[in-house]
Amino acid sequence: MSSPVDSSLSNRSRLLFLAITLLSFLAASSVPTPMYHLYQEALQFSSATLTLIFGVYALSLLAALLTVGSLSDYLGRKPVIFVALLLDILAMLLFIQADSVAWLIAARVMQGFATGMATSVLGAALLDTDRQQGPLVNSVAPLLGMACGAMGSGLLVEYAPLPLQLAYWLLLVLFVAQALYVWRLPETVSAQPGVWASLRPTLHVPPQARRALWLALPVDVAVWAVGGFFLSLAPSLVRTATGSTSNLIGGGLVAVLTLSGALMILSLRHHPADKILRLGASLLAVGISLILIAVHTASLLLFFLGTLVTGGGFGSGFLGALRSVMPLALPHERAGLMSAFYVLSYLAFCLPSLLAGNLTRSLGLIATTDGYGAVLILLSLAALLGLLRQRTAKACIAQES
């Protein structure tokens, strides 16, 4: 019979493994970002094609969330995590062999489906393991993962041999080790009927969580639209606006965005969700404004400062939305609600950036950035206004009662 201390250590090690695995999937997703200009130079494709390569990843991820997002509620967590790891192993092999746009698209499609499957099941498994720390890890691990992937990839591209393969080989080894270890975890969900029905594309938002989701959605949309732009077009934008040719710039920008977001999450984790959402909307509006000024003044320093502020909005907006919604789900609803939350988030992640990539053909990258930024500033301010009205309404009701 295990002691409470043994049980605590077991939970802690399980939480650590799940967090690292989630971090690994998101790290892999941002690894191509610093390489995009190398792919463009080698394969001679446009910014619109670049956003297509980025966009198919997000669309494939959405397809996974819509079909297999709640699969682990019926089959159990371990087999679904294992299959997601196998798919990402295959994606790494495709990246290693990629010598055309078609190969890159195939690799991103495979990676997107694997990541979509992984984010919902790992998110649910983290909540199963620790109801208090699970939401925090779900918020921080993706941001830290994207930072590690982008910055690590940038360093390898700049200083290591095999700039377009080495990062994928390292991830391949990591995923193989995780696929072997996952079977040592205890299962937290018992199998139940309804597996085939769960594969029908659907968004399952429990009734008790719907109002909270719609209130948080405008900030969440702005947050993920910023993330999509940074992971697709930001490196090209910095090169165009400032003339910098360093391979570290693209990865550095993503790292600043996501690390500042992660630090904001850690510092705000004990604050009420509504206050965090309001802060996120405010920081996004200010940060994006600074980035637009940096673009027109060709200031790399101001670009990074604006990214730092925007990252604070990214982290606080994401945490506020997640904290507002996920605790409202019952245990058997967690994977389904996590899947629905990520579907809405990743629609905002890919569709605006795909549109921006196509607009660069006719408007150019700078003008497209201006329009993109203006829309996100307006969305952030509208969200902030709605949240302030909600706070005022609550205060009036409290006074009347």
Explain what the structure shows.
- This protein has 401 residues and is mainly α.
- It has a single domain (9-188, 206-400), classed as MFS general substrate transporter like domains (Growth Hormone, Chain: A).
- It has 16 helices and no strands.
- The longest helix is centred in the last third of the chain and has 36 residues, at 365-400.
- The chain is globular.
- The relative contact order is 0.15.
- The model has no long low-confidence stretch (mean pLDDT 87).
The gist of it:
This protein has 401 residues and is mainly alpha-helical. The chain has helices at 4-30, 36-43, 47-68, 72-75, 77-97, 101-129, 133-159, 166-181, 195-198, 207-232, 234-242, 248-268, 273-297, 300-325, 334-363, 365-400.
